[in-house]
Design goal:
homodimer, 451 residues, alpha/beta, Rossmann fold, 2 domains, six-stranded mixed beta sheet, four-stranded parallel beta sheet, 19 helices, globular, aromatic amino acid biosynthesis (chains A, B), lyase (chains A, B)
């Protein structure tokens, strides 16, 4: 040992008063809402009920009643505006990091030279990388309460399947997941994560179910879609009476479970002294849209054109912008009941895209009511526009967002550019429904196109 | 419109007092430490200085002085225990989400049936998915202050390159990144993200530099490693006088920049009334280890065997467990100065692994002093052990962690199992240095092996 005296190993600190807020997930549910907001009794017209067809087939409604969880059927039938969130669910929602941050996208605003203020609701920071966990936790809880051991479901981009595998693990359940084949084959990393979580995954259409076999035999919808996966999940549940079938979008209870998003946004904006002028969500089955906008339905009724609600969809599945508002099955084979929604028709073969979460031929009846009543506007973007927006977000905000979420942010960017023209200091809130780290194949393909 | 009276669109809330904490990244730096902790003056013996060889080659130390940022050279020479963090850097560290959470891994503890309490410091939640951002932001800031426009660096797994590309974007700089070829070819998704961020990437060894050409010509180190990438980055900086070369590990200033980790852990544990018995970090260039353990050096001096410090390394690059404590070059071609560290020798050809962040033949002099003085223990794990641990973390804590971080958690798991035998309610803290979402190729390969 050489040299002069060494300072004692340092216990000094330059500021003895530096005492940062400990950031320890507490599991304390106080910051999570006490109830879900139920959109259905708050719609301006009654929700068109699901119904059976006149084709002499066995009742699809009866099948749904048998294979679905009791609790969510009660929620869908409820006329209450608020559905209590079980304490255990509140605890788990706190544990995954709710409330999620509301980010002011200042760098994006500066780049756009807009007077608008853009707020991004960051559902992408949740453990599975998307908002889907909010409902997956609730439904896995209800399943465990009911004594169910195996859940069957479908997934499009894989966000819902990933969330169900995660939530199933949390409650000691097994998850069987039918995954739109085109997305399952793109997303090898997400496939690995779902399998590591213990999920049993089948790219759809598959040989695993009667519905899948029929599609393969007839050479229909071979790329797969959310619709083919819905059909197969129901078919599987039909053949496995011990299982229960759950959904991650479209239905009232799923939209209600997602209302934690909008309730948090309301509280967060109030704390900032802000009132939103525009709320934006991407729209596939409508659950992040319903979750963000449901708690604002009263404001919309009061403010009319003073509050703009926008659903951003994929131009490859343009239901709200080009579909018809009519009864249709949610799956190509017609194993689902007839539901009224904006639809492209169940024979519509969806093209291959990297936007699996928005890739279905029909959608949510609740969203359909909002659209048909003129409460929400709709815009459609193609894949190149979406990934351009994702690149913009990454470069300016440093955040890598899911391809689906790119549609919502694109709509926010368009509004912000319009605000530059009009000079209006508009307050825009867009929901970032998911993270893009497990969807990089789409970005890579986009980059290959010279982006 | 049919039916009876509809409830008015609901402005009701079940609990008018529900008033959640708004979670809005504030940019306010009050929760970020005011100073970095400098390990060097707090080592029990002086740090062995870097030196030139006796081979008649031009001075490598002179080259380092020319190509490195002035501020970090001042930091490396400082005898102060605390180096002030510039206010702008504190603001950016707050904006990326510091302090990061400290997670009690209760599910993992239950699975292990251990009396130990396992705390995980969650650096994986930062925007680029790893702790590397802490130093990248600091160095990009110093570069911008110095008027530098282009930064050149190396990266192993890609975490540092990703962080530098992100931080460079933040300060309007250009980043040139030499990336250990074996990792660059594995990680297509991370490659895409770095390119979208504007980073200029070269898998190493490359034809882009004199050092890379020499390796390719001689057929040495063709897989690439952190060492080949270091050599090429320095070679590039030598040939481009307008650029500056930065490092993401090994050197005292990098370890200091990472000391926000340990300072936060101290405050977070104090708030919980906890005193750590064991601190664990994975160790490649030693910066997450130094960052976690530096602020605990005084405690270690005081408590001796009462506080255990463990470095977890890769069995494919077993420097601390099987290397020699001697002077060596950090790159195979010898363009770096001679530094004293635990080394396998610069001719050691590292095998192909999915643990790129721990894959170098030598390491940090500071870590070497800690090891040679008996202050840190070392353990080595092979790739299968690491990915097994990653799968365990995902199944029990729902968190997908980087392959490097798996080594630290594995050591924590081993301690917790030992605690089960002894019955000791040990308090263990392990640093989760990174997220695994951009490293799924390794998990996929592991899954293919029947995991």
């Amino acid at each position: 040992m050489s040299g002069g005296p060494r300072p004692a190993p340092g216990a000094r600190t330059p500021d003895p008063d530096w005492n940062p807020t400990p950031v320890v997930p507490s599991g304390a549910p106080d910051d999570v809402p006490e109830a879900w907001f139920n959109l259905v009794p708050n719609l301006p017209v009654p929700l068109p009920p699901a119904r059976d067809g006149d084709d002499g087939q066995p009742s699809r409604l009866a099948l749904q009643r048998r294979i679905r969880l009791a609790a969510v059927q009660e929620q869908d039938a409820s006329t209450e505006s608020f559905l209590p969130i079980p304490q255990r669910v509140r605890e788990e929602l706190a544990a995954i990091g709710r409330p999620t941050p509301l980010l002011r996208a200042r760098a994006l605003e500066a780049h756009l030279r807009t007077p608008a203020r853009i707020y991004l609701k960051r559902e992408d920071v949740l453990p599975t990388g998307s908002f889907k966990l909010n409902s997956a936790i609730a439904q896995a809880y209800f399943a465990a309460q009911q004594g169910v051991r195996t859940l069957v479901t479908e997934t499009g981009a894989g966000q819902w399947g990933h969330a169900v595998a995660w939530a199933a693990r949390l409650f000691g359940l097994h998850a069987v997941i039918f995954w739109a084949g085109v997305s399952a084959r793109q997303k090898l990393g997400r496939h690995t994560v779902i399998k590591l979580l213990g999920g049993e995954v089948y790219p759809s259409p598959s040989e695993r179910t009667q519905v899948g076999k029929a599609l393969l035999r007839d050479g229909r919808h071979l790329l797969g879609s959310l619709g083919t996966a819905i059909g197969e999940a129901i078919s599987y549940a039909q053949d496995h009476p011990e299982t229960r079938y759950i959904s991650g979008s479209n239905l009232p209870h799923v939209l209600a479970h997602q209302s934690v998003i909008g309730q948090e946004v309301k509280a967060q904006l109030a704390a900032l002294g802000e009132t939103p002028d525009t709320l934006i969500a991407c729209v596939g089955g409508g659950s992040n849209l319903g979750g963000l906008m449901g708690p604002y339905l009263a404001d919309k009724a009061e403010r009319g054109d003073g509050l703009t609600l926008i659903g951003a969809e994929s131009a490859s599945a343009p239901r709200l912008t080009r579909g018809e508002w009519r009864y249709d099955h949610a799956d190509p084979e017609g194993i689902t009941p007839l539901t009224k929604s904006y639809t492209l028709g169940r024979d519509y073969e969806l093209p291959e895209t990297h936007v699996g979460g928005l890739r279905q031929h029909s959608g949510s009846a609740v969203v359909g009511v909002l659209r048909s009543q003129g409460l929400i506007d709709a815009v459609a973007y193609d894949e190149a526009e979406a990934f351009e927006t994702g690149s913009l977000m990454l470069r300016h905000e440093g955040v890598l967002i899911a391809p689906e979420s790119c549609h919502a942010v694109r709509a926010a960017v368009d509004r912000a550019i319009e605000a530059r023209r009009t000079g209006r200091a508009e307050t825009i809130v867009a929901c970032v429904s998911g993270n893009g780290a497990l969807d990089l194949e789409g970005y890579t393909a986009h980059l290959g196109d010279g982006a």
